[in-house]
Amino acid sequence: MEELIVIKIGGNIIDDTEALHTFLCDFSAIVSPKILIHGGGKLATQLSSKLGIETKMVEGRRITGEETVKIVTMTYAGWVNKTIVAALQSRQCNALGLSGADANLIPALKRPVKDIDYGWVGNIDKAKVNTGFLKNILGVGIVPVIAPISCNADGHLLNINADTIAKTVAEAMIPCYRVKLVYCFEKSGLLLDVNDDSSVINEIDLTLAEQLKTEGIINAGMVPKIDNALEAVSNGVSEVVIGHAKNILQMANGEKGFGTIIKA
Fold first, then answer.
1. Are 184 and 250 in contact (CB under 8 A)?
2. Considering the entire predicted model, what is its pTM?
3. 162-172 and 222-234 are packed helices; what angle lies between their axes, rounded to 10 degrees?
4. Side-chain half-sphere of 217: how many Cα atoms within 13 Å?
């Protein structure tokens, strides 16, 4: 089967103009069919602050009230998404900007309230991803660029964790491709010491992940990233790597020594 590379780019790279420029140049050079999924960066938080709307986060996930869902939609599916698409076009990479709401690409359900009320945050199901649409546009050489916004059956917009979208899309495309999932951010991988970029953990499995969570080494925004990565390999994604955006070509090509490899 042909390989498909699903790549998620984190907000801290999006916030850094030079780092984003380098990443998009390298991303454009990847020959395999590819899908790019992006986070939102700090822009939504900055805009919320200017409007006097408090930002609340729980383990890297944004509490999304009625006003916040407007802000994240404008930011993620608007400015950030189209800035990335325009930059890719300038590099002769024909891209199509999408959200989960477009073409019913990634239908969602509002997350039920349990211990925490996340507001207008959605849960998604790989069985409902519009894989036919994605396969069609990939087949004509177009690169989907997906923002972490979707909607429910009532048409209400929902904020979706971008790491979760990447995992779900990767799993959904398994019947069509041999799928590799790469999480890119501003660190060289999962670090034993967050202040030491050379302390990369080369490989991690569920047992080690639970131990590192207990020790507080995996925390905040790394929690959904690691959880999604472990679930992806358990569900049949051929390889999951977490590493620095500057090493995207090496990770995409399967070179060893770049990033943290997730084992089932």
1. no
2. 0.94
3. 10
4. 17
- Helices 81-90 and 17-29 meet at what angle, rounded to 10? 50
Contact predicate 212/218, CB 8 Å: yes
Structure tokens of 118? Answer: 């996340």
Give the residue numbers spanning the domain of 145: 3-262
Q: What is the pLDDT of residues 47-87, one digit of tens each?
A: 999 999 988 888 667 899 999 999 999 999 999 999 999 99
Structure tokens at 5: 């590379």
- Can you give the CATH number for the domain in which 71 is found? 3.40.1160.10
Terminal Cα-to-Cα distance of the chain (whole angstroms) = 21
Residue 256: strand, helix, or coil: coil
DSSP state letter for 106: S
CA distance 108 to 47: 25
Q: Give the chain's domain count.
A: 1
Query: What is the distance between the alpha carbons of residues 213 and 178, in angstroms, rounded to a whole number?
Result: 30
Other CB atoms within 10 A of residue 64 CB = 24
Q: Which helix (H) or strand (E) holds 18?
A: helix 17-29
Please state, in angstroms and rounded to a whole number, the distance separating the CA atoms of residues 228 and 219.
Answer: 14
String of b and e for 146-172 (b: at least 16 CB within 10 Å)? bbbbbbbeeeebbbbbbbbbbbbbbbb
Residue from 148, 147, 149, 164 nearest 227 by CA: 164
